[in-house]
Amino acid sequence: MESTAMALMERIFLTVFPLVAIVGVGFLYARARHTDMAVANRINIDVFCPALIFSVMSAKSFDLPAYSTLAIGGLLVVLGSGLLLWPLCRFLKIHPKTFLPPMMFNNSGNLGIPLLVLAFGEQALPAAVVLFLVENLLHFTVGIYIMDHRTNPFNVLRMPMIIATIAGLVFSSFDLSLPQAVQVPVDMLGQIAIPLLLFALGVRMTSVDFSNWRLGLWSSILAPASGLAMVFLLQPILQLDPVQFGYLIIFGALPPAVLNYMVAERYNQEPHQVASIVLLGNISSLIIIPVVLAFALQLS
Predict the structure, then answer these.
(1) Where do transmembrane segments lie in this chain (predicted)?
(2) Pick from 176, 231, 208: which is nearest to 279 by CA?
(3) How far is residue 226's CA from residue 243's CA, in Å, rounded to a whole number?
(4) What is the dihedral of CA 64, 104, 205, 116, to 10 degrees?
(5) How far apart are the C-alpha atoms of 153 and 136, rounded to whole Å?
(6) What is the pLDDT of residues 116-169, one digit of tens each?
């Protein structure tokens, strides 16, 4: 029993520490030297992440129907979290446009993909990418619509990540393959995405605003709580196998995505409040994620 507990603790440490280490390097580097990640982030979103998505989804081993129920679960967790917390906006005295998007749209890119891969191995990468795509697609449709009802949701079809998804699914469905001379550089570009996402998160941590710490503290509890509540409410209906149930549990517990701050800044929707929610939520995840991870790993 003791050896099993020690093995579990070691696995959690080996999962969480590499993430914290890379985020820490980004944080320390940005503290020592002014670091503008705008260009690097744009390249990551436009080039490296699409390369990773295409590489995963075009693989012959990728089986989309195997992840369809998980994708539905991810969609319902995102939307359900917003519905669960909507009534609390009045209690917290905050505008729903400020509070609900960070509660709904989690850090499935910067944190979710590397966390699932390190915890469950490379076999979890397709599931992690599927959940990331579901969350991102909702963020750029429902999330933007929340900010501005005049937004055209079909603009999402021009996003490189969506184009890469469609292309990957076409290649997978028709059993197509790229020449090795092309596939190798695509795979190499995709491998840049995850560490760069983590490094960028560390850089962003240097701008933590503690002036709205009470709201940030509430949010750091409510974001994972609402996500996990939805996961456990949905499981009797979805009937996911233990491994995919574990994936969805971790997805539900993830902190708010950094992208929420960028969107709030673009639409001038109290960006300082959103920054506090996002960054304190990500800091508190250092405590919450290991606990949730321990539970999820015991299921698999």
Answers:
(1) 12-31, 66-86, 98-121, 127-147, 159-178, 184-203, 215-238, 244-263, 275-297
(2) 208
(3) 21
(4) -30
(5) 13
(6) 988 898 899 999 989 988 998 898 889 888 888 777 767 777 888 889 888 988
